[in-house]
Amino acid sequence: METLEATRPHHWSLTLLGMGLIIVIAYYGESVFAVVFFAILLSFMLSPVVQALEYLHLPRALAALVSVVVLLAMLYGITVASYNQAIIFADNVPKYSEKIRSILQPFQQEAEKLEKTREVVGTPEDTNVVPVRQVQTWPEVLTHGAGTLTDIVLAASFVPFLAYFLLTWHSHARSATVMLFPLHYRHTAFVTLGLIGKMLQSFIVGNLLIGLLISGISVAIFGLLHVPFFYFVGFLSGFLSLVPYLGVVLAMGPPILVGLGQLDPGGLLLVVLCVVGLHLLALNVLYPKLLGSRLRINPLAVTLALLFWGALWGAVGLVLAIPITGAIKIVFDHVESMKPYADWLGE
Fold first, then answer.
1. 182 by DSSP, 3-state: which?
2. Span 51-106, pLDDT tens digits
3. How many domains does the chain have?
4. Residue of 3, 60, 126, 163 with fewest CB within 10 Å of its CB?
5. 216: in domain
């Protein structure tokens, strides 16, 4: 396969300067890039549906419109159902809030003792105070760049429109992008874009299938354990389990929260074991089967990518870190000077 070769050597300082410039642009252009990347992922997720509708002799523009509208209707239904379940849960909280308070009371007492000890040991009369820069907490890092609710809704409203145009002008956008390269690089660029597209499509569809499977099993098990609102909590826990590395902790939150005061310690332990077991099943069995052939990135590279993009874009970076890194690796695979970096990222 033809590869992109550099016509002249570049000094390492120029490469470092270019990387720094890309990071600065990505940092300050987070809102724009996030919308574009989410729209690209959405377009690849809907692409099989559009192709199926085209097989039924629907024009591509109409097929893309139907796909986007149906998806928005489904998301609206899920949002309304989730909101209704949250309202029902909030109405039922007072029924067992006393039990939750009695469970947490010993921890609260210990915290108060530590606070009193700190007040006794502290020396407020000391005037030699050294100013210390406040360290950002993880919630602040994860919500970096989120802005107000209006900003988020405004940015999210562009995603379906951009995804529609990406679906409608898919062939034109790909061919026009290939034409941006010199003639002797166009075949490699065409192949590279195709591999990136297949990787993104596998990533989206694979995560959706894994999330649905884990959610279905969670709903069934939580129902057998008599977890309150098991049909809602199981669905939420299953998809939270897909978050890389943090998933097992996030997935425990909803069932344990509603289970406090309702389940005995044995039941809570079974819930924890269930969440951990399903997360390990997804990580060690389902992911390699559904995504392993397309997404060949070693665990160290995945961890560093999550750390970098999470620090750069917060929660949005954690969601987009793996597909972005996978696309970068595919590009590196087809650039001769970047192949060592591709080997370092690969398995």
1. coil
2. 888 888 888 888 888 888 888 888 888 777 777 766 766 666 555 555 556 655 66
3. 1
4. 126
5. no
